[in-house]
Every structure is written in C-alpha cells, then in structure tokens.
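quick one before i forget lol
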Amino acid sequence: MIITALIAIAVGFLIGYFARKIIAESKIKSAENLARTILESAKRDAENKKRELLLEAKEEIHRMRTDLEKEIRDRRGELQRLEKRLLQKEETLDKRAETLEQRENLLEEKQKEIQQLEEQISLLHQKEIEELERISGLSREEAKTILLESVQKDIQHEMAVMIKEMENKAKEEAEMKAREIISNAIQRCAADHAAETTVSVVTLPNDEMKGRIIGREGRNIRTIETLTGIDLIIDDTPEAVVISGFDPIRREVARIALEKLIEDGRIHPARIEEMVEKAKKEVDNMIIKAGEEAAFEVGIHGLHPELIKLLGRLKFRTSYGQNVLKHSIEVAHLAGLMAYELGADALVAKRAGLLHDIGKAVDHEVEGPHVMIGAELAKRYHESDSVIHAIMAHHNDVEPQTVEAVLVQAADAISAARPGARREALEAYIKRLDKLEQIANSFEGVEKSYAIQAGREIRIMVKPEIVNDDDIVILARNISKKIEEEVEYPGQIKVTVIRETVAIDYAK
C-alpha cells in the first residue's frame, strides 16, 4: 500500500508537472501572439504617424516657400522702384552737370572775348591819347590843366545859379510850411498817433508756465506758432512771454489765445487749436466794433455792414507807421471842418474822408493800388458817385472834379504830413514781409505761409495730397531762388517747408 501510494504520488507529480508545462507553453504562445499583435499595431500606428508628420512637414514647407516667394517678389518690386528712382535722379544730375558744363564753357568763351575787347579798348585809348597830343601840340598834363580851369569856371557859374535857385526854393518851402502850420493850428482836430510795434508782451502768473507753454519737446509752442504765424520768444525775462510778428491781426489772435490758455491752465495741441479759433472770433468781433465806433465818432450813418468790417480791419493796418483807422478818422474830421467853412457838402466830405483808404484793408489780398481797390469796394456797396470820385482822386489818380474831392485830398496830405505821423522804415519792412509771403503762396501746393523771425525765416505749410516728401526739397529751393531774384534783404532768409498729415476720429 505504501508502495502503491508512493507510485500514485509520483504519477500525480509527473502528471502535474506535464500539465503545468503544457499550460505554461500555452500561455507563452498566447503572450507571444499578443506581443506580436501589439508590435504590428504599434508599427502600423508609427507608419501612420510618420505619414501624417511627413504630410504636415510638406505643407509647412510649401507654406514657407509661398511666403518666401511673396516676400522675394515684394522686395524685388521695391528694389525695382528704388532702382527706377535712382536712375531718374541720375539722369537729372547728368542733365544738370551737362548744363553746368555748357554754361562754364560759355562763360570761359565770353571771358576770353571780354579780355580781347579790353585789350583792344586799351590800345585804342592809348592811340587816341597819342593822336590828341599830336593834334593839340599839348602834353597830357597840360591839356588836363586847361580843362580843369575851364570846368572850374563852369562849376562856379552853375553853383551861383544853384544857390540862387535854392534860396528861392527855400522861400517857397518856408511859405508852404507856414501855411501848413497855420492849417494844423486852425483845423481844431488832433488825432492821437500810436506808433506801430511788432511785438506784444503777455504776463505770466509764474515762470513755471513757460515750460507748459513750450510743452514736451516743444510741441505746444510749435503748434501755437504754426496756427497763428507768429514767433513766441521765451527768454530769461521773468513772468513774461514776447509775441513777435509783423501782422497785427495775427499777433492779437496769438495774444488773446495765449491769455485764454494761461487762464484755463490746460495747454496741449488740441486745446491750443480750440483757443486760437475762439481768439479769431473774438478779433473779428473787435474789428466790427472798431468799425462801428469809427463811424459813430465821425457821425456817418448808413454804411454797409461789409464796409464797417473793412473799416475795423484798418485798426490793424499801418501806412508808414501811421495807424490807418486813426488817419481815416482824422481825415474825415479835417475834410468835414473845411467843408463847413467853405459851404460845401460836409457829409459827403466826411464820408469820403473816412472811406478814402478803405482799399488798404484788403490790398494785401487783392492786386492793384489801394485807391482803385477802395473805389471798387465803395461802388460794390452802393456809395454815391461823389464819394467814389473823392476816393479815386485823393492821390491824383484822376483829376478832382468836386470841392469835396479836393478837400479830402488836402485833409489826407495834412494828416500824413504832421510831425511824427509817418515812419517809412516800418512800411518798407512790412512790405518786404508781405512780399515774402506772396512769393511763397504763388507756388502750387502751398496752403499757407508765414514770414517770421523779423523776416529772417519764411515758414510754409503745403498740402500733403499735392506735395510729397521729395517735392518739398525742390519747392524749398525754388522759393529760395525766387526770393533771391525778387526781394532785397540783408543777411539771409531761411525757407522752411512743412508737410504734415493729420488724421482725426472720434470715439462714440
């Protein structure tokens, strides 16, 4: 039994061993199959991923190639444009060089001709002197002595005649001056004379305000100067800013705008533009008020509103340093008083005297003498024929036909001739500044221009849609050349051309 049991145990052990071996081999095969399946699946996934990555890489390469080709085309086009511009400039320079070379050759030829002519003239002169000495039998020094003696006698005679004429002229002028003094004494009218200035002073609350007026990197002061056409002089003068400009209306606009900005405290380009517009409206009101006050002072009624405005503008106009509105009021009073004394129409004389220089209100803007401009304005606003005739005759452009016209002419002469009434230097200076602005405005594309720095600089704003950045260089040069040809001035004049594009929108 024991042996049987042992045999049974051994058989069972063997059976179990083989059974486990069979099961293990089965599991190994199953695991191998599973591993093979997983490996094949991983290979397929890897192949798929590889194909996707290759496809994405090809698409990225295609996109980058497209962008690169576009960039290359753009750069090639830009290079072609630059090359074309350079070729054009090169052609222009070649043409200029050729022209200069031709002029230089021409000048050299002319210089040679002049030298030859000078030599010929010198020889002819020497021959003439020798021939004269031979004919006269006198040496050069002897002939000179005889000639000087003869000329001296003639000069002494002419001096005697001239002295006599000057004595007579002095007597006539003395009598004329005496009559003028008497007229000034009896005319019972003396209008104040205010000398015209070209600067105004604005008082500041403190010196810190100067920095706010200048602004960051000077943007505020540049905005004020650009909008008003004047110079702001900010120096060491305590609590003061000097406004400089030859045009009194611009200077007054700048002064009022600056005072409003100082009072408001907010100083920046947008606020400056707003205050300048308000100042312009205020000056327009001042002009109307000045015209109405002038008409009321003289006692003239029924003037057209436009003539009232033009009269007011004369407050900011000078002639040889004499304020034209004060001068017109004085002429009206003088002509009216003399008309009363002579029994002429005093109202016509006063009306014509007040309006005789009305053309000066717009003579900077309209071509022609102020006499004809004034007559046209008077005709346009329905003044009487006698008033129009007196305006036309006050400078003898036409022969005066009425007593009133003669009286206006005389009153104008009296007012202008009284001591201290006029200063020619300022008028010539203002005319030169006006001429600078007229020259700049005559070029196409110029929007507005301002003569500043006492005529040492002309600042020009151009229309950006007409003049490009390349054109402003040529424009500045052309304006400089025209100024050199047409204006006489000391030193040099700086020509500054400004091209600016501003875009404005509002957030709502």
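fyi Residues 145 and 151 are 10 Å apart (CA to CA).
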